[in-house]
Amino acid sequence: MTEHPEQIAGYTYGTAEATASPLTMEDLERLKAVVGLTKEDQEALVEAAGILADQADDMVTAYRDGLVELPFMRPYFGHPDGSANPEYGAASKPRFDRFIIDVCTRPLDQDWLNYQHEIGLRHTRAKKNATDHADSLDHIPMRYLVAFTAVVIATARDYLAAKGSSPEEIDRMHAAFTKAVMLHVTVWTRPYVDAADW
Amino acid sequence: MTEHPEQIAGYTYGTAEATASPLTMEDLERLKAVVGLTKEDQEALVEAAGILADQADDMVTAYRDGLVELPFMRPYFGHPDGSANPEYGAASKPRFDRFIIDVCTRPLDQDWLNYQHEIGLRHTRAKKNATDHADSLDHIPMRYLVAFTAVVIATARDYLAAKGSSPEEIDRMHAAFTKAVMLHVTVWTRPYVDAADW
């Protein structure tokens, strides 16, 4: 089960502690248009939330089980020598679990922009490790952030199918989830790139 | 129908004209691992190629029909004022069509790395417009390149389903296609980002 958001340490969604995003609502509207996120997709995401909510913890566990298999990835979430850091893992997991639900349910507004920018920063030298006082490598290369999206999207289908929805419903939810995840990850890349190039 | 690669103007795959990639084969192996691309996925991609090959032209037409609906996107492929540039569209389309097939069939080797880097550069100030002598805006913001991946991935399912494969085969091909597309787009972002951050 995922925790109630107010109980998640470091989860600053909708608070003044989240960094102000440099993006405008017009920037967001354009990104929504480019990923192709429609009103129908947003309705499908509400359905998806109902199906994924109690699987979010399992989904994130599966992501991490995959990443820990890759020795070169371990220093980003373990200690710098690649050894495990269970405290950091435990501290950051509820926020990652919450992300699965937020992807499907959060209104795309200024609070959303701000917290997505905060998440982006927490992957880079600007804020990595600060929230949980961890000693992992202080920057996740952008290529791994973008590339891992494939796993999140490709594996989502089985979770979306787990509650007996029709193939058509699963298709709709999976397409909407794909667009929503890409929207989030795109915004997370903002801190990595010069404004004029991003 | 897609043209034979040697007949496609500006398609420098496997030639000395494609830029040398700054990435190593080890970088590529790591990215393959992070997107989760397995041997089974690569087999599924061969199947996908058989299904998508004669639909590639329609797929790219559909992408472009979507993008032309967005006025703020038009100056990147039309003239700078947003008016249509059919010559540029016609010149670049066979390469884009060919991408659909290449995603599914090309061995992931040094030629692949080099040509993907070339594609990345052709989205940025380094090489945008040069191949086709176009006057469009000279840089596609990275956010649109990444965000639009959602459309390519989400819409692929119907094309993969168009030849009567079983739901399980479609799932396998769609997951493999998702990983392969994300691998490509990830490498295309290299020219946008400082090496130390990418």
TrEMBL record, chains A, B:
This is Globin-sensor domain-containing protein. Transmembrane segments: none annotated. It comes from Actinopolymorpha pittospori. Gene3D superfamilies: Globins. One of its GO terms (molecular function) is heme binding. Residues 25-196 form the Globin-sensor domain. InterPro entries: Globin-like_sf, Globin-sensor_dom, Globin/Proto. Pfam families: Protoglobin.
